Amino acid sequence: MEYLGFGIGIRNRHFSRILSAPVQAEWFEALTENYLGMEGFPHSDALNSLLKVRQNFPITLHGVSLSIGSADPLNQKYLRRLQRLQEIIQPAWISDHLCWTSMAKQNLHDLLPIPFTEELFDHVANRVAEVQNFLGRSLVLENLSAYVN
User: Fold this and answer.
1) Does pLDDT of 50 surpass 90?
2) Global pTM?
3) What are the two backbone dihedrals, phi and then psi, of residue 109, each rounded to the nearest 5 degrees?
4) Is 52's pLDDT higher than 90?
5) Residue 52 forms part of a structural domain
6) Domain with 39 in it: what CATH number?
C-alpha cells in the first residue's frame, strides 16, 4: 500500500469546499456504500463531485458492508457494484472492516466483532482471497476494537 500522506474522510457536504478552495489534505477516503446504491449509478451528483475531487487528489474507498467475517456467502451484487465503482474511481486502495455485518443475507448495519480462532482465520483468509481475485487488487482490512476476550 502506497503512502499518500495526510488524508481525511470525505462526505457530500465537503465537496463544495474542496472544489472551491485549497485544502490541507493530500488524499480523501470515500465511504463506499455512499456510492453503490444510488439511483442512476454511476451518474449521481455525488459521484460526479467525487470524480471532480479525484482529478486533483487520490481517493480511497472504505466500506462497511463487505462482511468479510460472516458465515453468509459473499454478496455478489455488492462485489459487482464495488468492482464497477473501482473502475470509475480508480482508488489508491479499497478497505473494509474485519468484522461481520450480515446474517441470513440481511445487512445488520453494525460492525460486529469476530472470534479470534484458527478456524475463523482460515475462513477470513479464504474470503479475502476470493474478494481480491474478484477485484483484481489487494484488500485492506481495518481491525475492530475488542472490549472483552
Assistant:
1) yes
2) 0.90
3) 55, 40
4) yes
5) yes
6) 3.20.20.150
Helical axes 76-89 vs 45-54, angle rounded to 10°: 50
Q: What percent of the chain has pLDDT over 70?
A: 92
Backbone angles phi, psi at 62, to 5 degrees: -120, 120
Q: Which residue has the higher pLDDT, 99 or 38?
A: 99
Cell reading at 124: 477470513
Letter for the amino acid at 9? Answer: G
Residue 35 located in a structural domain: yes
Nearest to 11 by CA among 27, 30, 26, 24: 30
Q: Are 89 and 59 in contact (CB under 8 A)?
A: yes
Q: How many structural domains are present in the chain?
A: 1
The model's confidence at residue 40, banded by pLDDT at 50, 70 and 90, is low
Range of the domain at 96: 1-59+76-100+134-143
* Residue 125 grid cell: 483468509
Which region, left, alpha or beta, applies to residue 40 given φ > 0 means left and ψ of -120 to 50 means alpha?
A: left
